[in-house]
Every structure is written in C-alpha cells, then in structure tokens.
Amino acid sequence: MGGVSTQTLPEVDTRPEGTDTTGDDTPKMFHYVRKDKIAESAVTGTMVVALCGEVFPVTRSPKPGSPVCPECKRIYEQLPGE
C-alpha cells in the first residue's frame, strides 16, 4: 500500500453557534488533510476530512509559522514514511 500524502489546511467551523477563528476571521489552527482532496474542495466546496477527524471545506492556505492542530500533528508523525 502506498504512503499517504498530506498538506496542512485550515480548520473551518461551519456551525453557527461558534467559530474557530480570531476576531479577524483567521483560523486559529490548521489541519493535515490528503493533498489530492485540496484542489477539489477549493474549487467545488466539497468537505475534506483532517487526520484528527475535523470536517470542513478548504477556504484558506496556511502561512509559514501558522499553528497546526496538535492531534493532526501527532497522527501525521506516526504515519509510515513513503
């Protein structure tokens, strides 16, 4: 079985009762998701599933130094290399 390719993506909370953003609509942390799902989600708005289980559409790209979801990072570090 081949390795899993991932990229860090933002967490987007679509629930109306709360948001996971700072006051300027910037995500607080970014998640790891499969690379092959990023473009599809960005173009069509389909949902992606992060390694930690969060589900959201791709709406932003992380900047260098952006905080990463600790659970996604833990899972990613346990994945076998390619």
Descriptive account of the structure:
With 82 residues, the chain is an alpha+beta fold. The protein is built from 2 helices and 4 strands; from the N terminus they run E-E-H-E-E-H. The protein has helices spanning 35-44, 70-78, and strands at 6-10, 30-34, 47-49, 55-57. The protein has a two-stranded antiparallel ribbon with strand order 1-2. Strand 3 and strand 4 form a beta hairpin. The longest helix is centred in the middle third of the chain and has 10 residues, at 35-44.
Helix and strand topology:
Elements lengths: L5 E5 L19 E5 H10 L2 E3 L5 E3 L12 H9 L4
Antiparallel strand pairs: 1-2, 3-4
Keywords:
two-stranded antiparallel ribbon, globular, alpha+beta
Write a short abstract of this structure.
InterPro entries: DUF3039. This protein has 82 residues and is an alpha+beta fold.
Class from secondary-structure proportions:
alpha+beta
Largest sheet geometry:
2 strands, antiparallel
Counted by DSSP, the helix tally is 2
As a percent range, the share of helical residues equals: 10-25%
Order of helices and strands: EEHEEH
Rounded radius of gyration (Å): 13 Å
Which outline best applies? Answer: globular
Q: Could you say how many structural domains there are in total?
A: 1
Low-confidence stretches: 13-22
Could you tell me the number of beta strands?
A: 4
Indicate the mean pLDDT.
Answer: 78
Termini Cα gap: 10 Å
Strand order, largest beta sheet? 1-2
Bin the strand percentage.
Answer: 15-25%
